[in-house]
Amino acid sequence: MYKVKIFDEEHEKDLEAAVNKFLAGLKEGQLVDIKYDVAAMESEGEQVYCFSAMVIYRG
Predict the structure, then answer these.
(1) Separation of alpha carbons 16 and 40, rounded Å
(2) Biggest alpha carbon–alpha carbon distance for the chain
(3) DSSP track, 12-54
(4) What are 15-49's pLDDT values in tens digits?
């Protein structure tokens, strides 16, 4: 069975740490794919970023 884990962080280093922590718990051969995206928007005059990743793995 395939499963997904979604990560969403405001900073790319936080996303990297969260995904690496999750991947460390997977067994060899469980990882299928990782999808990555960045969204940017303006809020109250500031640029806001959203870094997200979806990890697809065998559960």
Answers:
(1) 18
(2) 45
(3) HHHHHHHHHHHHHTSPTT-EEEEEEEEEEEEETTEEEEEEEEE
(4) 999 999 999 999 999 999 999 999 999 989 999 99
Q: Is this prediction's pTM over 0.85?
A: yes
Evaluate whether 51 touches 9 at the Cβ level (below 8 Å).
yes
**35 phi, psi to nearest 5 deg:** -110, 135
- Single out the residue of 32, 7, 39 nearest to residue 21, CA to CA: 7
Q: How many CB atoms lie within 10 A of CB 16?
A: 14
Torsion of CA 39, 53, 20, 12, to 10 degrees: 0
CB count, 10 Å around CB of 19?
A: 19
